[in-house]
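Hi R.,

Here's the chain you asked about this morning:
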Amino acid sequence: MAPIRSLRLKFACDEDWHAFAGDAGVRRCETCRTAVHDLSALTRSEATALFRDPPASGLCVRYQHDAMGRILFRSETRPGQLVWQRFVPPTVEAAADADTGAGERRGD
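And the predicted structure, written out as tokens:
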């Protein structure tokens, strides 16, 4: 996967998203007992709000990406479609320094 320049993740996780309990947007990983948020089930503005006010336990995410490694978000104007939109989390530097535990979930 090509690097994502605007979102730095601490690690890539090999747990299977489809094995998690929950819905399309948030599922629970029983291995680490964490809520995993699917950025591609959110619009860009919803993802930005999630990063502005992350859960106290830390933020763990997964996402779908295009061939260039860019995050795909749910379209705000075209229901049912995923679109690439530039995404710069509002607290990228603070999140990297605060050890939030953000990781990418694989297993699409």
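The two ends are 13 Å apart (CA to CA).

Let me know if you need anything else.
M.
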